[in-house]
Amino acid sequence: SGLNFSVLLGSLRKSSLNAAVARALPDLAPPGITITPLGSIGEFPHYNTDVQDEGFPAPVLAMARQIAASDGVIIVTPEYNYSMPGVLKNAIDWLSRVSPQPFVGKPVAIETASPGLIGGARAQYHLRQSLVFLDAFVLNKPEAMIGQATQKIDPESLQLTDVGTREFLTRQISALAALAKRVRE
Ligand code: FNR
Fold first, then answer.
1. CB neighbours of 82 closer than 8 A, spacing ≥ 6?
2. pTM of the entire structure?
3. Nearest-CA residue for atom 10 of ligand 1
4. 113 pLDDT higher than 80
């Protein structure tokens, strides 16, 4: 049977380069793989155990359910100050407290896009570190670091137009599918 991956986006910006990458993914999926966006992490309050004790916010629970029901998660995020954006860390902190914790044993692929040359590489390793504690199965290779992203995304249409990047992302989705099949067995 087919696989369903969900996409977690680490930027809240309307004209986000990473959102453009995330929007391209459903079309880049090989046959038999469905890719669906998760809700906005901008709806999560600042993490606070006192708030959690009054009951998890509905958007947190909804996202945790969607992640649990998916065969894998693709996290698409900018790099902020050599790490992941605070809003993404906040979302991970919330999701990590839901029981059952939805990332346990979950195949995850990471994609970062940046106008800079390094393509967000440094954020990837901080994100991977947090995902170790969550006990996710993070895909090692291929690593999707999209540098010079302003030259690969059309500024008018905000579509990912670069053919090489599109082909590369299809290869990464296939690798995540192979990991997800191994995890399922
Ligand atoms: C950035 N940017 C950035 N880029 C990078 O390659 N490494 C970095 O460490 C940072 N740090 C950083 C911090 C903050 C607070 C901002 C606002 C920006 C630039 C960043 O890659 C650029 O703004 C992207 O366009 C952000 O991604 P979205 O929102 O376009 O997806």
1. 122, 123, 126
2. 0.98
3. 80
4. yes
